[in-house]
Amino acid sequence: MILHLYIARRFLRALGIVTAVFIAILLPIDLAEQLRRIGPELGFGPVFELAMLNLPRTLYQLVPLFVLLATLLLFLGLARSSELVVIRASGRSALRAVASPMIVAAGFGAMAVAVLNPIVATTSQQYDMKTAQYRGAEERTVSITAEGLWLRQGSATEQTVIRAGATNADGTHLFDVSFFQFAPDGTITGRINAAEARLMDGEWALRDARQWTLAGTPNPEASVTVTAEYALPSTLTRDQIRDSFGKPETVPIYQLPGFIGQLNQAGFAALQHRVWLQMELSSPLMLAAMVLIAAGLSMRHTRSGKTGILVLAAILLGFSLFFLRSFAEVLGENGQLPVAIVAWTPPLAAILLAVGLILHTEDG
After folding, report:
1. How far apart are the first and last CA of the chain?
2. Would you kindly state where each structural domain of the chain is located, as residue ranges?
């Protein structure tokens, strides 16, 4: 037990060192990137604010790499000081020696999902809002509530808020839809109800539309206009609607199931958010796989040679797993693979392969 605690403490120290080094590297780079994005006119304060808001998201994405490098640092240090030889000579198997860092990594992954994920979601939301504010862009075009789907479009002379009871998968075909038109000063000027609306090039094509003029009319109901087909100019595009749902990482994991339910109720498949939820839940297994991969190629004495090649091989295998998982995530978001397979198969396969490598090395 004491030995397991000692190895776990060394692993946590290595993880802290790796994280601190990456913070020192990434923060100046992000400061330069934010300065390029918003320009030097606003001063250093907004640039530093955006960099600090974006840093948690960047670090959170790199946690598997941190765990991989920390494991290499741990076992290379144990091998260099001959502690690993003593551990193996005492009768400890390789799997027992790697058990404590693997458990710590899995526990850290669970803590990251439970604690760090909501923090990263909040800072990511604030980062996107602040970036839009400093760049003078609209913060959001789409909102999903219990009442349905809400969109916003605007021009220099008019703003329009759109509410739809249901929609198709990409938000370009709306049902039971209402358009509320506002003047630049915020005064409502008109309302249009339609059975359905299709987004075309530069316009909404409405069917069974009823139009009310609300500005300067004492009795809007008396002047209602009913048309079977009506074309309403639009500044929205399919890509704007798709991108305005926000990235799944901006939704805290505790709120994500409810948000997915709202998307499904509005008519969206929410594949991207469902995949992200399962990927987050499988993060502890991913970190455990990184520990096993690094340990399988570094748990040998440095006098045996080829240390540099083995370290490079461990890093390449770790990046390959990360790439494979990201590629599977894309396939899941496109609906080409089931969500459970996308999220859980790569880390489980990596764990089994790494355990096989450790057992083969030990037996040899």
Report:
1. 27
2. 2-135+262-363, 142-243
Look up the CATH architecture of domain 142-243: Sandwich (2.60)
Task: Calculate what percentage of the chain has a pLDDT beyond 70.
Answer: 86
Q: How many other CB atoms are found less than 10 A from the CB of residue 114?
A: 12
pLDDT at position 358:
83
Average pLDDT along the chain: 83
Report CA-CA distances (Å) from 304 to 70, 79, 309, 340.
21, 10, 12, 41
pTM: 0.75
Q: What is the pLDDT of residues 153-186, one digit of tens each?
A: 776 677 888 888 777 756 778 888 888 888 877 7
pLDDT above 50 for 139: no
| Edge-to-edge strands, sheet with 159-167 | 142-145, 148-154, 159-167, 173-182, 188-200, 203-213, 225-233
Q: Looking at residue 245, what is its pLDDT?
A: 59
Integer CA distances (angstroms), 127 to 51, 131, 134, in order = 9, 6, 10
Q: For 134-187, what is the HEC assignment?
A: HHCCCCCCEEEECCEEEEEEECCCCEEEEEEEEECCCCCEEEEEEEEEECCCCC
8 Å CB contact between 116 and 56: yes
Nearest to 53 by CA among 140, 134, 144, 108: 134
Q: Residue 59, Cβ neighbours under 10 Å: how many?
A: 16
**252 touches 186 (CB < 8 A):** no
- Give tens-digit pLDDT for 69-102: 999 998 888 878 777 767 776 767 777 878 889 9
